[in-house]
Design a protein that fits this description.
483 residues, alpha+beta, Outer membrane efflux proteins (OEP), 2 domains, six-stranded antiparallel sheet, two-stranded parallel ribbon, 12 helices, 19% strand, rod-shaped
Length: 483
């Protein structure tokens, strides 16, 4: 039985150290960068941002040239009852200027061949060609081309909204990675702590066995320390099961093979306490993509209101055109007719909407969207304030706790050393020695737990301030040697 216990202890220790010796150590920055670079949802968000960036080209296209053509042939009866074959082709080109004015040109050609003409002096077939240059200037609605300007602004805001949504998703995913990573650190700390306790227990077993051979220890002493060892073995097995689950979860976040080994690392030096909470809060507010998202929504609501108010205006456009009119052809008298003249048009185009309830409702909705965004900003800032101050206070309190646990470990070690000496002289029993051993092991684990909690809180605070993204290692470096 004793040999089985020793063999299982050696096998477990060999498996633990051999597997860890082959594992690649990875910092939180390396794990975070690799997880972010391989997250499908973030890649989709990146594609959405790229898609939104093409809205600018759509908005700019409003100033492009438009060409149109209408061509038809028909046989019809004129007002005199004479059948006629008529061919007509109309081509026009128009473009809106950045000022909102419109320019264009048109060509209208027609050919009419009648079976009978009212007078032999009229040309038949008759060719007609009209050429015009057109200019339209909005005086009220669309003056200054607000649709173009606001369209560009909307496209820019759409890209910003998509990008800020991506950054929000990135920060949320980072929280998941940070919590998972520091949970693995805590599990590894538990495994190391149990291994230390097992080593001490093993030395105690050897001592009890020697005393038993000398008749200085009873069977119950050996049973107690063996029971302690089995308890530690069971606890370590449970920790190793949790570690396997966590390792698979971390590998899944990094899109690595589930069997890949790695070891989390913790900085040996403690970061300093936090003493400037106001500056930290200001950094968090400046970084927060959720706040920038709401500011973009406010601008988008204001842009929408400007568009609708422009649409609500009465339309009054000044119109001017200058063109030529040509008619030519031969008549029944074998005469060639060729007539040319100029045409000038100056006028106004006016219209108004008599029912503006729909547009008024859209304005109210946009105003409510702006108010909602302002309330969201207020709420986000309040949450940031409590989160920053909360992490700051927790960090400072953890420093105090760590100092206290260091003192406790020193006292627990002294207590155990003194009890061990008394045990060697036969002045205390095995049960008390095991109890003191457990007290020391608990204090050591709690100290590591607090160091890990301190690093986790610093990481979360750095994430709130956006500083953690300045520390991440580029993918080409973080992947080096990690398979």
């Amino acid at each position: 039985m004793k040999k089985k216990i020793i063999c299982s202890l050696m096998a477990a220790a060999f498996f633990y150290y051999s597997s860890n010796s082959c594992a690649q150590t990875m910092s939180i920055e390396q794990v975070l960068q690799r997880a972010v670079d391989n997250n499908i949802l973030l890649k989709i968000a990146e594609l959405k941002t790229e898609r939104a960036s093409h809205e600018k080209a759509k908005a700019e296209s409003i100033l492009g040239w438009e060409i149109s053509n209408q061509t038809n042939f028909k046989r019809d009866v004129g007002f005199t009852g004479t059948p006629s074959d008529i061919f007509r082709s109309i081509t026009s080109m128009n473009r809106m200027l950045s000022s909102g004015d419109s320019v264009g040109s048109s060509a209208n050609y027609s050919l009419e061949n009648s079976e009978f003409v009212f007078s032999p002096v009229f040309p038949n077939p008759a060719h007609r060609l009209n050429l015009d240059l057109n200019y339209r200037k909005p005086l009220w609605r669309d003056a200054g081309n607000p649709n173009y300007i606001l369209g560009l602004q909307s496209a820019k805001l759409g890209t910003e909204l998509s990008n800020e949504n991506k950054l929000i998703l990135k920060d949320q995913f980072a929280i998941q990675v940070i919590e998972a990573y520091f949970s693995t650190l805590l599990t590894q700390a538990g495994i190391r702590n149990i291994q230390r306790a097992r080593n001490r227990t093993q030395r105690l077993i050897e001592f009890v066995k020697n005393n038993q051979e000398l008749g200085l220890a009873e069977e119950k002493d050996l049973l107690q320390v063996n029971a302690q060892l089995q308890t530690l073995i069971a606890d370590q097995s449970n920790f190793e099961l949790v570690w396997t689950q966590q390792r698979i979860a971390i590998n899944q976040l990094m899109a690595r093979d589930h069997r890949s080994e790695f070891l989390p690392t913790l900085e040996t030096s403690l970061k300093a306490p936090v003493n400037n909470e106001k500056n930290l809060l200001l950094e968090a507010i400046n970084h927060a993509p959720a706040i920038r998202l709401q500011h973009a929504r406010i601008e988008l609501a204001e842009t929408t209101m400007k568009k609708i108010r422009n649409t609500n205006k009465n339309k009054l456009d000044a119109i001017a055109s200058l063109g030529t009119r040509s008619a030519y052809g031969g008549n029944a008298l074998n005469e060639t007719i060729n007539q040319h003249d100029y045409a000038v048009t100056i006028g106004f185009d006016y219209s108004r909407s008599l029912d503006k309830r729909g547009s008024d409702a859209e304005i109210q909705q946009a105003m409510l969207d702006r108010t909602i965004a302002l309330r969201e900003i207020e709420n986000i800032k309040r949450e940031l304030k409590y989160n920053v101050f909360g992490f700051s206070q927790e960090i400072n309190a953890t420093h105090t706790t760590i100092a206290a646990y260091k003192k406790r470990i020193a006292k627990e070690q002294q207590k155990l050393d003194e009890a061990t000496q008394r045990y060697h002289r036969g002045r205390t029993d095995t049960q008390q020695l095991i109890l003191f051993e457990n007290d020391l092991s608990t204090a050591q684990f709690l100290l590591e737990q607090k160091r890990i909690d301190l690093a986790r809180r610093h990481a979360r605070l750095d994430l709130l301030r956006g500083k953690i993204w300045e520390k991440v290692i580029p993918l080409s470096v973080s992947n080096k040697g990690v398979q």
